[in-house]
Amino acid sequence: MTDTSPHTPLFLMDTLHVGKEDQRHLTWHTYWPPDAVHLAKDYLELFLQAAEAVHMTLPERFVFKAGQMFFHEGHLQEVRLSGTVDEQGWSTQTPPKIMANAERKLLLDPSDAGRDYLSALVIEEAPGRHGCAIAWDVRTHGESLLSMLQAKPPALPATSPSLFPNGKVHPMASSLVMWEGGNLLTRAKDLPWKPDAEGRLTYTRTVRSGKGKVVFWVTDDPEKQYPEALAGEAALAVLNTFDIRAVCMHLIYAAHVTTLDRPWAEEFVIDDTQIFRYLGLERRTDLNRQEKLALIAKVAQQPAQLLVYLYWPHHAKKDAFAIEQSRLWDIAITYYGQPDLYGEMQGTGLTIRGRAGLWAKYFLNRGGSKEKNAFYEYSYLPHKLLKSITSCWQKHTGAARLMVWLLFKTRVGRDQRIDVLTLLEVAYGKDMVEAAQRDRRLRNSLATRWDGDLLVLHQDGWHLQFDERTYPPELWPDWAGRITLERSAGYWERLRQASLVIFPPSEVDAALTALGESSPPPRRAFLGSPSPAQPEKAAAPTKEEIRAARIARGWTQHDLATAVGKSQAWVALIENGTRQVHPKDLPRLHEILRL
Question: Is the model's pTM score more than 0.70?
Answer without folding.
Answer: no
